[in-house]
Design goal:
Oligomer: single chain
Number of strands: 0
Number of domains: 1
Radius of gyration: 17 Å
Strand content: under 5%
Shape: elongated
Helix content: over 70%
């Protein structure tokens, strides 16, 4: 019998949403809360935080339907929220 050519249901790009959100959320948090890197990575922290929240939310949706891991999506979304809110708070504090 030949091997089936139908891909496994877990072989979708949705599996990568959680880990991608986790990495972007970590970049956002590090870029916001580490003082030595704050001014260098400040613009990247804003973008990474927003993308981590977006991709993490999509990852949570797919993980609840059985594709991907839930913990990476939740961790990435949480880190993205912390990094994005921290960056926005710093911008608000510096502009006042």
């Amino acid at each position: 019998m030949p091997e089936p050519t139908v891909p496994d249901p877990t072989d979708t790009p949705a599996v990568a949403l959680g880990p991608t959100a986790l990495v972007l959320g970590a970049i956002s948090v590090i870029g916001t809360w580490v003082p030595a890197l704050a001014f260098v990575t400040f613009p990247w922290a804003i973008i990474a935080g927003a993308l981590a929240v977006t991709l993490g939310t999509a990852g949570i949706h797919y993980a609840l339907h059985g594709t991907g891991r839930l913990w990476t999506a939740i961790a990435g979304t949480t880190l993205g929220i912390i990094g994005f809110v921290g960056t926005m708070t710093l911008i608000w504090a510096l502009s006042a």
